[in-house]
Every structure is written in structure tokens, then in C-alpha cells.
Design brief:
The structure is a homodimer of 359-residue chains.
Chain A lengths: L11 E6 L7 H14 L3 E7 L1 H9 L8 E5 L10 H7 L4 H10 L5 E4 L3 H11 L10 E12 L4 E7 L9 H19 L5 E5 L10 H11 L5 E6 L3 H4 L4 E3 L2 H22 L2 H9 L3 H14 L7 E4 L5 E3 L6 H16 L2 H9 L13
Parallel strand pairs in A: 1-2, 1-4, 2-3, 4-11, 6-9, 7-8, 7-9
Antiparallel strand pairs in A: 5-6, 5-10, 10-11
Chain lengths: 359, 359
């Protein structure tokens, strides 16, 4: 469980896969160097080709006591088929990073590499939380309303693509995991959780959503707010939105596309300064809000939930700041008791036979 | 078939359900009065309580030869359960309007009432196009790219909620119907059609999407562009996007929610005029584009596809202009041969047994 295996005295340790991101190892090494100077409370193991990582680190200021290496020359590219790569590259950096956690030498994994490979590597090396049948990839989405005591303008959406379909029991498990993660990361003691459907009424939606609604209504461990509709995703009516991976993936990519279309507007810094100077603060602050929302990918990465230790997937195009944020989030998750919270709540879900609802 | 039953000499006739919209009959009557003055090429039958409709029409200028009435005191409200209302209110205006078409006294139906009731009324009275197993509700969505010779900044999305799940064969039928409708309405001789999925590769998506992809790749009647992702919905990479009703409903409502959030920005007409005067045309035209896109609901209503004659569902909050546009679209559809085009293409789809993919 996260938090359970942290040896007293040993600082929380992150296995940082340095190899798979779009920018190569330089951004991961830069993030590690900065964190080593500012965060005495945790240790980083840089996983990758030491012939590349060593010189990159040497060019930077860093605190040597807080960084170590685990050398491996192999890594999985964005173009590799995740499933094939698992067998063809057993020493790939993401597999080695997950192995370090399985061995108890690290407490969490951070990677900016191939998402499918990260999910499969976690499944192969780390094992699932007892009772969890399917892992879920979660993502933050920009919202109009703010969430939790930190007033984050983001909500958590899961699953966004770890698997395509989900049974009623899977959706309930996703609700439990999303709730535990939001609680651990956002200091939100009782995040509100909803199912995405085509209407707010309990009977609305395909059978797996109706079934999950029934089970969640009985489960005191989750602050269940019922169903939400597509409208509520940009509004942000709840803290955690639960859906199947197929629908979650479409929703997430749609938000990305809308962000791209709108960014044409928000890009023009001169125009914004101009507006502000002439007192059109409403228009100017609106554009600023949109631009901040477009930056949501930078907020710490997407957790892959359901495994016995935290694994955070930073976006492929992450720069040092985003990878650093992902490491901070991973440390927070590793120190929480979310694994135990999830295990305890999942144990209360009735294990009905309902494989028929799976495609 | 649309176009097939139009008697030579008789003008194309629309059965206009005047009763179900949010604004009551006044907007429908206003639309009819305006159309009677400007469009000598078609006739309107106003369906509803003649005690209300008569006085409303008398208050207006109109061309008496182009409007007639079919009295019925009953109608289905937005709050009624569509299924129950079918039996409880056999003389409801939407059922009467569909019956007029079934009887050959009208060529198309327009209604701003309860969507579920419109779909059920069409199914009960008009009958499906041979080979079509499930009807689909289509909607236009605002896009960055334009479509067809008219350069419409909209694409067609279907199904958006006539039913929840769809088999591979249903998705292929939706593709055929969406293509035929886009061709008839947008003068687009060969609209591009894509399946919504979680990746562009043919093997991506749940089994029904993969199966539909295989069938569409073989079907020369549809200009099949493969799979598109969530990103492509706001971009508008294709003219017609095909998905199941559950996913389509979430996507459509999400766009509505995003529109609401953004409209805070676009609302300020003074600011826009101001920008324009100071030469900030890029910013100003961006806001204008967003505002136009927000107005997409006004563009003619949502066709319910799959029935032997056209039925157009205008938004519940439609004013006279929107209802008038829906009538014009209905006339265009009634005069096209889309029913025959759909029947011929559907006949070529292999009727595999694949009910197992249905939830």
C-alpha cells in the first residue's frame, strides 16, 4: 500500500524514468537537479542510460546526496507497441522503474514515456490493490468552478483510456480510486464524485452506469453526487467524474482540441495588455483564465490508479517544471494512505456477476 | 421515401407541431406567417389547438392560401414521459403531425416539443426506411474548419441520443443516413464521414466501432474517412461524425456547457466594437466567430433520421427564426431523394449477426 512500505528513516524515494519523454532525458535531469536543491525530504533514482544522464547532471547544480542512478540502456519509444515492447525490452527504463518500487527500493514511479507501456509495466511489476480488477488512468480537466480548499480550477476525470469498456463494478472501483486520489492530492477531505451519463436521473444511461449508480448510492465511503451530464464537465459541478475509458478518452481529447482552437485568441499578449490598459478588465481576465486553463496539462501529470504504489504519467511533451510537479504529486500520493483507503472501500462493493455488460 | 410521394402540382407540405415548444404556439405561428409571405413554394399545416392558433394567426399578416389548420387540443409537455404519453394522449399534436405525413397529406414534420416523444411518434406513425433497424438523432456542432460549398462552420454529429448503444451495423447505418442528409441539406455532393474513436487506426475502439470501420471501408456509397478522435470534433476535420447515442449525447452537452462558459466573454458587444475600432481585428473576429458558433442551435434543428419521411426537431427554446429555418430544412429534405439513397446503401451492408456487441 502507498505509505505502508516507507521505511522509517529512509526518505520517500521516486523512481524517475528519464528516457521516454518527447524531449529526451534533459528535462527529467533538469527537474531532478532542481528538486534535489529545494526538497530535502525526498530522494530521486534516475532510471536510464547513465552515459547520457551522468553528463547532463554534471552540467547542473544539484545536491548529490539526494540523487542516485539505476543504469539501463533500453527504453520504450512513443512509436513502440506497448504490448510487444514488454517482452522485447525487459530492461526498458519504465519496467526497471516499476521493478524498483516492487522491490521496495522506491515508493513511486514517474514517467513521461509511452502511456500504454507505463500501464502494462505497472501491471507486470507492481500488482494491483486487492479487489481492483482494472486500473484506470485519471486526468485533470479545466473547470469553471473551483474544487477543494486549494480552489483548484480542475476536476479529476477517470478512466481516460487505461481500458475501453468498464462494468458497473469497475465504475464503482474507479469512483473509489478517484475519490481517494483527490483526497490525498488536493487536501479535499470528502471530494464529490459523479457518474457521467445522459441524464441526472438514476435510471439514465447504459446498464453498467445504472448498475454503478445503484451500488454507489449504498456506499458510504464515497461522497456520491449521482449522475452528471456533458454540461457539467466544463462547469465542474463535482470534484471527480467517473466514466469508461473510451468515453473518457474522447472527452479528454475534445477538451484538448477546444483548447487549441481557443488559444488562437488567448495567444495575443499585446492585445491582452492593451485591453487591460483601457479598463476592459472583464475581457482581459477572461482571456487570462482561458490561457491558464490551457496550461492544465502542466499540473502534475495523470495518475495510473489501482496499483499497490503510485505511478504518475507526465505528458510526453513535459518540460522540467511539469516533471518536477509530477514528482511532488507522486511523493504526496506515496505518503498518503490511499492504497489502504481504496482496498477497504473496494472490499465493501458487492461482487455481482455482471460480465455480460462488458463488450 | 422523401421525394417519392410528393404529388405533382401539390406544393411540398409541412405538418408543423405548434404546441410543444418552450414558448408555446406563438413562435410557431409567427414562423408560419412569415414563411407564408416569403415562400410561395410550400404549404404549412398548423397542428394544435385552433382556439389558440387562430387568434394568434389573425393578429399577423399572412398569406391565407399557404396555411391550413389541423385541430387537436392535446399535446405532450417537456415533463411528460414520452413512452406513457404515446398511449395516454393518442391525439397529441406531435402524433397527429406524424399521422398527416403517414397519410400522405404532408411531406415532413417539424416540432419544437419533447424529443423523446418526437422519436416515438415518428416510429409509431411513419415507419422506418427498409433496412434501418434504429433511428438516429443528428445535431450540428460548431467547428473551426468549414464544410461543403456553403462553407458551413458546422459538422453533423449522430446519434446524439435516439438510443444509447449501437451495434456495428447500426453505426454503418448512421454513417449512411448522416451522409445522405448532409448531401441533401448542405449541397455537399460527397460529404466525408468518420467514426468517433480513441485513435485513428482501424483496430482502435470497442468491437462495434472496429466492426463498423471494416464494413465502411468496403462501402463505396459513403466517403469514409476512417476514425477521428475527440480533437477532431472542434476542429471539424470531417463533415459527418458517427458515434453511439450515449457518447454523442455527452459530446453535444459538453459543447453546450463550453459554449455557456465562453459566452461570458463574447457577450460584451461594446468591447467587441471597441476592439474593432482600434484595429484589433484578430481578437474581435475571434470573438465574433465564437458568438456565431454559440448560435448553432438556430441552424435548422436536428433531423431524426431513419424514417420514411423527414422529421426535424427544433430546439425546445426555438424562436420564430429557428422554427422557420427548421421548416426550410424540412422542405429541402422532403424534396431530396435521401430516403431512396439511404435504402439503397443500407441494402449493401452485410447483415451479420452481431447482437452480442449490444449492451
Amino acid at each position: 500500500m502507498p505509505g505502508a512500505t516507507v521505511t522509517p528513516g529512509r526518505p520517500t524515494t521516486i523512481a524517475l524514468d528519464c528516457m521516454g519523454g518527447d524531449h529526451g532525458p534533459v528535462e527529467a535531469v533538469e527537474a531532478a537537479a532542481q528538486l534535489s536543491l529545494s526538497r530535502p525530504d525526498f530522494h530521486l533514482i534516475l532510471v536510464g542510460d547513465v552515459n547520457e544522464l551522468g553528463p547532463l547532471l554534471d552540467e547542473r547544480e544539484y545536491e548529490p546526496g539526494r540523487i542516485s542512478f539505476r543504469h539501463t540502456p533500453d527504453w520504450i519509444t512513443m512509436e513502440d507497441s506497448p504490448r510487444t515492447a514488454m517482452d522485447d525490452k525487459p530492461e526498458a527504463s519504465v519496467l526497471v522503474a516499476c521493478h524498483l518500487v516492487a522491490d521496495g527500493r522506491a515508493d513511486a514511479v514517474v514517467t513521461a514515456g509511452n502511456t500504454g507501456a507505463a500501464i502494462l509495466a505497472a501491471a507486470r511489476k507492481m500488482g494491483r490493490i486487492p479487489g481492483v480488477r482494472r486500473a484506470a488512468l485519471a486526468a485533470v480537466t479545466p473547470t469553471e468552478q473551483t474544487h477543494g480548499p486549494n480552489e483548484d480550477p480542475f476536476a479529476l476525470l477517470l478512466d481516460v483510456g487505461a481500458t475501453l469498456t468498464a462494468s458497473a463494478r469497475d465504475l464503482v472501483t474507479f469512483a473509489i480510486m478517484g475519490s481517494a486520489y483527490a483526497e490525498a492530492i488536493s487536501n479535499n477531505p470528502r471530494p464529490s464524485v459523479a457518474l457521467l451519463s445522459n441524464g441526472t436521473e438514476a435510471h439514465k444511461g447504459p446498464p453498467e452506469v445504472v448498475g454503478a449508480h445503484e451500488m454507489l448510492a449504498e456506499l458510504s465511503e464515497v461522497n456520491f453526487a449521482g449522475n452528471v451530464e456533458g454540461l457539467d464537465i466544463p462547469r465542474g459541478s463535482v470534484d471527480v467524474v467517473v466514466t469508461s475509458g473510451f468515453l473518457g478518452n474522447v472527452v479528454l481529447k475534445m477538451l484538448e482540441g477546444i483548447g487549441e482552437v481557443i488559444s488562437e485568441l488567448a495567444k495575443d499578449a499585446y492585445a491582452r495588455r492593451f485591453l487591460w490598459r483601457f479598463g476592459l478588465t472583464m475581457l482581459s481576465s477572461g482571456l487570462r483564465q482561458i490561457q491558464q486553463a490551457l496550461d492544465w496539462e502542466q499540473y502534475g501529470g495523470a495518475p495510473i490508479l489501482g496499483f499497490s504504489q503510485p505511478i504518475i504519467k507526465a505528458h510526453g511533451r513535459s518540460k522540467a517544471r511539469a516533471i518536477g510537479n509530477a514528482c511532488k504529486v507522486a511523493v504526496k500520493a506515496a505518503r498518503s494512505d490511499m492504497g489502504r483507503v481504496i482496498e477497504r472501500a473496494v472490499a465493501k462493493v458487492p461482487s455481482v456477476e455482471e460480465e455480460g455488460t462488458q463488450a
